[in-house]
Design a protein that fits this description.
single chain, mainly alpha, 9 helices
Length: 201
């Protein structure tokens, strides 16, 4: 993304369509040849700040907020970024088996931009914290709702990327989660068996 594109506010169009029409948003990613994958990581950076401040609004911040906004922000941003890259790789791998062409750079950009709605967590949490009305409940409800919204953006973007139906794209996007739960299950099972053999044999 060049300086001229930044001045033309094309990035604002991308974010706007991410909220209301993810298929159109993906076409921006696909058609803009100079669209920078690196600039899309600004969104996870903002999401990390939004989540930290939102969490500390529930407990009145304090000294720990300063450390969370420095060291904590760096850790959360790096964690989200690594997770984005791994998820994009797994989605593309699953897509290959499903007959999709795929594009790892486009998928990374898509996942990064899909997190844009999560920035809304901060203003919503702030409102319920100020009026002191079930702020913890609405924090978790908003987090879950925004997660579903972001997931829908990814699914529709993958669908547009590969010209596939919603159901097939959904299965491809669920692959990283299914792999995680399968890995976690067998890790837990192996740990349990090892623990049992160590103490009871």
């Amino acid at each position: 993304m060049t300086l001229e594109q930044l001045k033309s506010l094309k990035w604002a169009d991308v974010l706007y369509y991410a909220l209301i029409e993810p298929r159109t948003m993906y076409r921006y990613i696909r058609d803009e040849r100079s669209f920078s994958i690196y600039l899309t990581f600004l969104i996870p950076a903002m999401v990390a700040i939004s989540e930290i401040v939102s969490f500390y609004l529930l407990k009145a911040g304090g000294q720990m907020l300063y450390y969370s906004l420095t060291y904590g922000w760096i850790f959360i941003f790096m964690f989200i970024s690594v997770n984005v890259i791994i998820s994009a790789s797994l989605i593309n791998t699953a897509g290959q088996f499903a007959g999709f062409n795929g594009n790892i750079k486009h998928t990374i950009s898509l996942i990064n931009i899909s997190m844009f709605p999560k920035i809304l967590l901060l203003p919503i949490t702030y409102i319920f914290s100020v009026i002191n009305f079930a702020s913890v409940f609405f924090y978790f409800l908003t987090s879950f709702s925004l997660f579903l919204w972001s997931s829908l953006i990814i699914i529709l973007g993958i669908s547009e990327m590969n010209g596939a139906g919603f159901g097939k794209s959904l299965l491809v996007c669920l692959f990283p989660s299914m792999l995680f739960f399968i890995t976690a299950f067998f890790t837990f099972l192996a740990t349990f068996i090892g623990f049992f053999q160590f103490f009871f044999t």
